[in-house]
Each structure stands twice: as C-alpha cells, then as structure tokens.
Specification:
The relative contact order is 0.10. This protein is mainly α. The radius of gyration is 19 Å and the shape is globular. The protein is about 40% helix and about 10% strand.
Length: about 150
C-alpha cells in the first residue's frame, strides 16, 4: 500500500485531471511536474515501488525540470527506454537552483522558507502542516538551532 500522503496526493491528481477534462474537454492532460532530482529518486527501488513509478509515468507523464549538476542521460538510463515517450525535459533557462525537495526538507525541519518562496505560500505550508510538524528544537522563523545553556566540560 502507498503511504497515506502519497495515496491522497494521487487521488487528488486524478480528480484534478477529471475536473480539467470536464471543464476543457477530453484532450486535456494533467502531467506531473518535478525536478530531475525527483526523477532520479523515482529510480531508487528502496524509495519507490517500480510498479508505482510505471503507473505514474505512463498514466500522467512527467515534465522534468533539468537542474545543473545532473547528468540527464545517466538519470534516464535508470528507466526502460520506452518511458522517454512519457517524459518531457524542460531546460534550465532560469538559473534558480531552489528545488521543491529542498523546500519540503526545510519545512519538515521547521527552518525558514523566506526568500525561497512567497510569504503567503510559506504561511499556507505552516498553517496546514503540509510537511509535518517542525522539530521542537528549531525555530520556524529562522534557521538558528536553539541550544541548551548547559555545557559539558
């Protein structure tokens, strides 16, 4: 079984696709958008079930944003060649190296998202606890770790 969050996410995606098709016609296709770092993680069978990956890629298709530092061919070689028919690579035309993976990681740890995303989006993430509760020892407004005042000598 898929983790609850992933299951809810894909159910939501299916509903979005249905809604778009009702509103705009059957030729509308909802695709997943991700960075090449996420595509690389999808090849890791310890993180992703290959059957889930095949379903996601062949049902929705992927728009994959290419980031500096990744060898695109090396990442793509981790998948069957016919998956390429369902993957659209988007070149890195704007050099912004902030990834959604990084945003999720910072939010999970309660670190600041300021200057990476809009304040409104950051507030929404915190208010709705999209990525879980921040760790108790980290301030949600900045990246300073609160340390105990006692020291060992």
């Amino acid at each position: 079984d898929a983790p609850r969050g992933l299951e809810v996410y894909f159910r939501s995606l299916l509903e979005s696709q249905r809604s778009c098709r009702v509103a705009h016609g059957q030729n509308v296709n909802v695709m997943l958008v991700c960075g090449i770092d996420m595509l690389q993680k999808m090849a890791n069978t310890e993180c992703w079930d290959p059957a889930d990956v095949e379903y996601i890629i062949t049902t929705y298709g992927l728009l994959v944003h290419i980031r500096m530092g990744f060898d695109v061919e090396e990442v793509l070689q981790q998948f069957p060649p016919w998956y390429r028919d369902f993957i659209i690579l988007v070149p890195n035309t704007v050099h912004c190296e902030v990834s959604s993976t990084e945003i999720r990681s910072l939010a999970k740890r309660g670190l600041s998202l300021r200057y990476l995303i809009s304040d409104r989006v950051g507030s929404y993430i915190r208010k709705n606890k999209l990525y879980g509760e921040p760790a108790d020892h980290i301030s949600p407004r900045n990246s300073v770790v609160k340390r105990s005042s006692t020291h060992s000598i």
